[in-house]
From TrEMBL:
Entry keyword set: ATP-binding, DNA-binding, Nucleotide-binding, Phosphoprotein, Transcription, Transcription regulation
UniProt keyword Ligase present: no
Entry-linked SMART domains: AAA (SM00382), REC (SM00448)
Name the UniProt record assigns to this protein: Regulatory protein LuxO
Protein's UniProt keywords contain ATP-binding: yes
GO molecular function: ATP binding; sequence-specific DNA binding
SUPFAM superfamilies: CheY-like (SSF52172), Homeodomain-like (SSF46689), P-loop containing nucleoside triphosphate hydrolases (SSF52540)
Coiled coil location: none
C-alpha cells in the first residue's frame, strides 16, 4: 500500500502544486484548506505524513501539530513563508521532523517527503522490534543467546515477504513456535495460522487433511470438508515434520506451492488460495533427498529461507530463562505459587544435555511443580533425568550435579577411594569431589584421551565434557 500524505495549505494553487510534485512518486495525497478540515481529514484519512502550513485562516498550524499524539501519529513537515528561528524550534519541539520555507522546489519537496517517510518506517520497525523482542523474548520464543538473536533477525527479515521458510532442528526445539513467530511478524498476522503435523496423520488421510474432500469421495467422507490449505487462505500454512509426507503426495504439494491451486479429493474443480508456506523437519532434508524419500525439486522449492534452531544444550543461559518462564506459566496453570529456583537447580539445569530439548524441560518443570507444594524450587525437588544417548540416569539430589555411580575399578587399577574406610564424620567428603578425582585419574591413565576414559567408565564422552565444564564454572 502506498504511503499517504495530507497537504494542509489554504492557498489552492500552492496545494495543487505540491500535490503535482508527488504524482510521479505514486504517493496517495489529499488536501485540506483549513485547520478544522485538516483535523477531520486526519481522523478519516490516517496519513503517514502531513505537510503543514503554519498560517491557516482559522488557526495556527502549530496548534494542529500540538494535538497529534500516540504511537501512530504521522510525521509532520512544517511549511511556511514566514520562517523564524523561534518558529522552527517550536515546530521541532512539538514533534515536526523537518521545516521547509516557501517557495519550495519540486526536487527539494520530494526529497524531504521521502526522508520523512523513511524515518517513520524506521521508527515503526524499531517500535515493532522493542514490542516483540523484550526481556529475551521474541513473540513466544524465549532466549537472549547469540544464536537465538540470529534466529530472531532472520525471522524479522523474512516476515514481510511471501518466501517459504524451512525450519530444521531437533525434536522439541520449538519449531512450531518459530513458525508462529514468522506468521505474527508478517503482514498476515491477523489472518489464519494453520498447523498440520504430517507425521501424526495416516498416509491415506493426509491428502484430505491438506486439500479437503467432497462428500462421498471415499469411505467415511460423509460431508464436504475444507482442508488446511483452504483454512489458511490469506494466512500461513505450517507443515510440520514434512519429511514424513508420502512421496506420491509430494508431487501434488509441489504443484500447489508453484501455482497456488489445488483440487479437493473427489473434485475436478481447481481452488486457488493465497498461502504463505512454512515447513519444518527434525531430519536432515538433504539426507532424505539422497535416500529417495523426499523429492529434490520440492526441497529446492521450499528451502528458500532456512532457519536452523539450535538444540537447548547449545543455548547456554537460555536454559535458565526458559525454565523460569515455564515455572511461571505452569505455576499459573496449576494454581501453584512460584518465587524462584535455587542456584543449585540452575547449575543442574545448565549441566544437563536435555536430549528432549524444551519439551523435556517443560515436562520436568511440570513434574517438579505438581509433586511439590513449595514455591521456592530446590535441587532435591527436581526429578531424576535420563541421559538419552547412553541410557544412564542423572540424579540431581546430590551436591554439584552427581550423575553416575562410581565404578569399582578402571581396567586393572583399583580406586584409592574404594579401599578408604570412613572412621569419623570428618572423613566424609562430598560425593561430587570423589567423582571428580576418580574421573581425573581415569583421564590421566588414558593419556588425556577422554573418549577412551569414557569407554572404560561406561559413560558417553559428552557426560565427561559436561562435568569438566561444570567444574570450571564453579572454579574447582
Amino acid at each position: 500500500m502506498p504511503p499517504k500524505v495530507l497537504i494542509v495549505e489554504d492557498t489552492e494553487s500552492l496545494a495543487l502544486l505540491y500535490q503535482s510534485y508527488l504524482i510521479p512518486t505514486g504517493i496517495q495525497t489529499q488536501i485540506a484548506y483549513s485547520g478544522q478540515e485538516a483535523l477531520k481529514t486526519i481522523d478519516s484519512f490516517s496519513p503517514d505524513l502531513i505537510v503543514l502550513d503554519v498560517m491557516l485562516p482559522d488557526m495556527n498550524g502549530l496548534e494542529i501539530l500540538s494535538e497529534l499524539s500516540g504511537d501512530t501519529k504521522p510525521q509532520v513537515i512544517v511549511l511556511t513563508g514566514h520562517a523564524t528561528k523561534e518558529m522552527a524550534i517550536d515546530a521541532i519541539r512539538l514533534g515536526a521532523s523537518d521545516f521547509l520555507e516557501k517557495p519550495v522546489e519540486a526536487d527539494r519537496f520530494r526529497i524531504t517527503i521521502n526522508n520523512a517517510l523513511k524515518l517513520k518506517s524506521l521508527a515503526q520497525e524499531v517500535e515493532k522490534y522493542h514490542q516483540t523482542y523484550e526481556n529475551g523474548r521474541y513473540y513466544d520464543l524465549i532466549g537472549s543467546s547469540r544464536t537465538m538473536q540470529s534466529v530472531y533477525q532472520i525471522i524479522n527479515s523474512a516476515a514481510a515477504s511471501k518466501a517459504t521458510v524451512f525450519i530444521t532442528g531437533e525434536s522439541g526445539t520449538g519449531k512450531e513456535l518459530c513458525a508462529r513467530a514468522v506468521h505474527l511478524a508478517s503482514p498476515r498476522a491477523k489472518l489464519p495460522f494453520v498447523a498440520l503435523n504430517c507425521a501424526a496423520i495416516p498416509k491415506d488421510l493426509i491428502e484430505s487433511e491438506i486439500f479437503g474432500h467432497l462428500k462421498g469421495a471415499f469411505t467415511g467422507a460423509i460431508a464436504n470438508r475444507e482442508g488446511a490449505a483452504g483454512q489458511a487462505d490469506g494466512g500461513t500454512l505450517f507443515l510440520d515434520e514434512l519429511c514424513e509426507m508420502d512421496i506420491n503426495l509430494q508431487s501434488k504439494l509441489l504443484r500447489f506451492i508453484q501455482t497456488g491451486c489445488y483440487q479437493q479429493v473427489g473434485s475436478e474443480k481447481e481452488v486457488k488460495v493465497d498461502v504463505r508456506f512454512v515447513c519444518a523437519t527434525n531430519r536432515d532434508p538433504l539426507v532424505e533427498v539422497q535416500a529417495g524419500r523426499f523429492r529434490e525439486d520440492l526441497y529446492y522449492r521450499l528451502h528458500v529461507i532456512p532457519i536452523a534452531l539450535p538444540a537447548l544444550r547449545e543455548r547456554g543461559n537460555d536454559i535458565i530463562e526458559i525454565a523460569d518462564a515455564l515455572f511461571k506459566k505452569i505455576a499459573k496453570e496449576e494454581s501453584h505459587d512460584y518465587t524462584g529456583m535455587s542456584e543449585a537447580v540452575k547449575r543442574a539445569f545448565l549441566a544437563y544435555a536435555w536430549p528432549g530439548n524444551v519439551r523435556q524441560l517443560e515436562n520436568t518443570v511440570r513434574n517438579t511443580l505438581v509433586l511439590n507444594k513449595q514455591s521456592w524450587i530446590e535441587l532435591e525437588m527436581v526429578p531424576s533425568l535420563p541421559q538419552g544417548s547412553a541410557g544412564e540416569t542423572i540424579v540431581y539430589k546430590q551436591p554439584h550435579n552427581i550423575d553416575m555411580t562410581l565404578p569399582t575399578q578402571i581396567g586393572n587399577t583399583t580406586s584409592a577411594e574404594q579401599s578408604r574406610v570412613l572412621k569419623k564424620t570428618q572423613d566424609i567428603e562430598p560425593l561430587w569431589l570423589i567423582e571428580k578425582r576418580y574421573i581425573e585419574q581415569a583421564i590421566d591413565l588414558c593419556d588425556n584421551n577422554i573418549p577412551k576414559a569414557a569407554a572404560l567408565l561406561d559413560v558417553s564422552p559428552s557426560t565427561i565434557y559436561r562435568k569438566i565444564k561444570s567444574w570450571e564454572e564453579i572454579g574447582v
